[in-house]
From TrEMBL:
Organism encoding this protein: Leucobacter luti
Name used for this protein in its record: Simple sugar transport system permease protein
A GO MF term: transmembrane transporter activity
Main location: membrane
InterPro entries, per the entry: ABC_transp_permease (IPR001851)
Keyword line: Cell membrane, Membrane, Sugar transport, Transmembrane, Transmembrane helix, Transport
Coiled coil segments of this chain: none
Pfam families, alphabetized: BPD_transp_2
């Protein structure tokens, strides 16, 4: 086998595996920028995957994507109402969303298909692959992007779109203001509730679509628990990337490479349990590294604020001394 073609095939697989993590991470970055940690991405992805397959099998894959988006938004509404209206702790709410999704998926599988583990073989929905034609013959880039699903392109375009919203729109300015200093944002007349509510809805939409990619890109069926903690990996990626567009994308690429490498190690005969733990080991390392960076940034910000306060108090004393 041509080594170059083999390496390009691996890169294409990496891109396929990165897509659901990247979509969920971009969605979670909206809430993280607004100072809301959404660990319910896992549950939103899971319900998106179920809706995509169950609806897509009855209609078509594109309707399935829309159903996945709606399913993610519904879960996000529950999250937003609990966290913003009833002031519940966001971590507890996120855990509740994940538990609700896991239980609801099993319930719906049992009621609709009589099987709590997976959808039956006849219930299947696959995303079509996009043939780029002569563009696919371009070395490296064409090989990498040819015959990918439409959601791979959506994920790649979501990164600059997120950057544009964050830094070039009124909503993005308000979202960053709320995340950096909520009392100051309130004093400036920003509707903090609305800004946070919209960010949570966006996170649900992206996570639902991420579930559609996960379920329909390859297998085309739904299995209970098929997200396999990818929502938590997305949270780790956006935390590692500080919820910034391109940093988050790079973090997602790292996790996608880890997952693809785990698959390759399994094919080479490496202990499957050991290879499957690799993405999660990298997740833990990334979270520790991100925690150290965040703590250092907070320490530097506190030191700067103290220096500014000292300068403000020392300022009026100079004329009095004169």
């Amino acid at each position: 086998m041509d080594p170059f073609a083999f390496s390009m095939a691996i890169l294409a697989v990496i891109l396929l595996k990165v897509t659901p993590i990247l979509l969920a991470a971009i969605g979670g970055s909206f809430t993280q920028t607004g100072n809301v940690l959404n660990i319910g991405l896992e549950g939103m992805m899971l319900m998106g995957a179920f809706a995509a397959v169950s609806v897509g099998a009855l209609t078509n894959a594109f309707v399935g994507i829309f159903a996945a988006l709606i399913a993610g938004v519904v879960m996000a509404v529950i999250f937003a109402v609990a966290a913003l209206t009833f002031k519940a702790d966001v971590i507890v709410v996120g855990i509740g969303i994940n538990l609700l999704a896991a239980g609801l998926a099993v319930l719906l599988l049992t009621v609709l298909y009589g099987n709590a583990g997976a959808t039956p073989p006849g219930v299947q929905a696959n995303l079509p692959r996009i043939d780029l034609g002569f563009i696919g013959d371009i070395p490296i880039l064409g090989t990498l992007l040819n015959n990918q699903t439409i959601l791979v392109w959506v994920a790649l375009l979501a990164v600059p779109a997120y950057a544009f919203v964050l830094y070039r729109t009124r909503y993005g300015v308000h979202l960053r203001a709320v995340g950096e200093d909520e009392p100051a944002a309130l004093a400036a007349g920003i509707n903090v509730f609305r800004v946070k509510f919209i960010s949570i809805l966006l996170s649900g939409a992206f996570a639902g679509v991420a579930g559609a990619q996960l379920a329909m890109a390859t297998v085309g069926t739904f299995t209970s628990g098929m997200t396999a903690s990818r929502g938590f990996i997305a949270v780790a990626a956006l935390t590692f990337g500080l919820a910034r567009p391109y940093r988050t994308m790079i973090a997602c690429l790292i996790f996608g490479i880890a997952e693809a490498l785990a698959d390759q190690l399994g094919l080479l005969g490496v202990n499957s349990s050991l290879s499957l733990t690799m993405p999660y080991i990298i997740t833990i390392v990334a979270l520790v590294f991100a925690s150290v960076r965040v703590r250092a940034a907070l320490k530097a910000r506190t030191k700067k604020a103290l220096q500014a306060a000292d300068a403000a108090t020392a300022g009026p004393a100079t004329p009095a001394a004169a």
